[in-house]
From TrEMBL:
InterPro entries: Glyco_trans_34, Nucleotide-diphossugar_trans. It comes from the Eukaryota. Keywords: Glycosyltransferase, Transferase. GO terms for biological process: protein N-linked glycosylation. This is Glycosyltransferase family 34 protein. It comes from Thermothielavioides terrestris (strain ATCC 38088 / NRRL 8126) (Thielavia terrestris). Belongs to the glycosyltransferase 34 family. One of its GO terms (molecular function) is alpha-1,6-mannosyltransferase activity.
Length: 315
């Protein structure tokens, strides 16, 4: 009987051929592609399901609640106006603020480090301080210590800052610095877009009584105004001339600024007929007082002090 013999093993086996790695490589590539497609698909679903306002609107800025409606800012300089008059100014501000639910920020010359700049720059720092201390206020009204609030019945948010009222008050296409500045106020500006309200006198813009609407623009404006370059430039009228410069050379500021008649917030005790105080005006200022001296200043203001006290007592 014959049995089949197993195949003879050769002493020269065939060369070793490694397994092909092509197939696993293809699998990895496909997995990556599938993962990428899935991510894109999920991203599209996320975008489609989001509200249109969240996809297209700009970041929402914080809107002050209007608590308090107004912060009344004044910087005292007893050396210029004397103790008696300074005391009357503080009393005047506190009574007016209490009547309307406003707050006050009453600073003194020397309260802030101005890095060697003239003390009149304190006004700008005090306004910045007011926005920090009362972040939800709606307006800041700066009224310097040379004046009194004479009509306690008038409220800033209605007498000046109401949009329809501003539409009536503001001077459009009007020279920023009188009499013939080539830079003029915007002709198409609406009251609702105004963030800074100023007046002029014969010398130019007046910084003794102004109103700023609280918000991101107000912070930008005050930071620009207080720039170290302007403080060190040695303007003749310090912060007032710096203000005239920035409103003429910064369109971002000019675009939010309104100039109104002087008597609305900034009557003078004497001067031109258009500027001179009349009964019923909101405020009166005495810009010549410092040059006249303390005694002359007290004499000039005495009748007005009596008048505002009577007006407040009757209101």
């Amino acid at each position: 009987m014959h049995f089949a013999l197993p195949p003879r093993k050769t002493s020269k086996p065939p060369p070793y051929l490694p397994r092909s790695t092509r197939l696993p490589g293809l699998r990895k590539t496909r997995l990556k592609l599938v993962a990428l497609v899935a991510l894109v698909f999920l991203a599209l679903i996320f975008l489609v399901t989001q509200p249109s306002s969240s996809r297209h609107s700009a970041p929402v800025q914080r809107v002050p609640r209007g608590d308090p409606p107004v912060v009344l800012v004044t910087v005292l300089d007893e050396g210029k106006y004397g103790r008696s008059l300074t005391k009357s100014v503080v009393e005047n501000r506190l009574q007016y603020a209490e009547k309307h639910g406003y707050k006050t920020l009453i600073a003194k010359v020397g309260d802030y480090d101005l890095k060697g700049a003239p003390f009149t720059w304190t006004a700008v720092v005090a306004m910045r301080h007011a926005l920090t201390k009362y972040p939800d206020c709606r307006y800041v009204w700066f009224l310097d210590s040379s004046g009194f609030i004479m009509n306690p019945k008038l409220k800033i948010e209605e007498h000046v800052m109401r949009p329809s009222r501003l539409d009536e008050l503001m001077k459009k296409d009007f020279p920023v610095v009188p009499p013939d500045s080539i830079i003029k106020t915007f002709s198409h500006l609406k009251g609702q877009d105004v963030d800074l309200v100023l007046t002029q006198d014969k010398g130019g813009l007046s910084s003794g009584s102004l109103i700023v609407r609280n918000g991101e623009w107000a912070k930008f404006f005050l930071e620009t105004w207080f720039d170290p370059l302007y403080r060190s430039y040695n303007f003749q009228k310090a912060e007032t001339h710096a203000l005239e410069h920035i409103v003429q050379w910064h369109p971002t500021i000019l675009a939010r600024m309104a100039i109104i008649d002087q008597r609305v917030i900034n009557s003078y005790s004497n001067g031109d007929k258009e500027a001179e105080y009349k009964d019923g005006d909101l405020a009166v200022r005495f810009p010549q007082c410092p040059a006249a001296g303390v005694e002359a200043c007290e004499a000039e203001t005495e009748s007005f002090v009596q008048a505002w006290r009577r007006a407040f007592a009757d209101s």
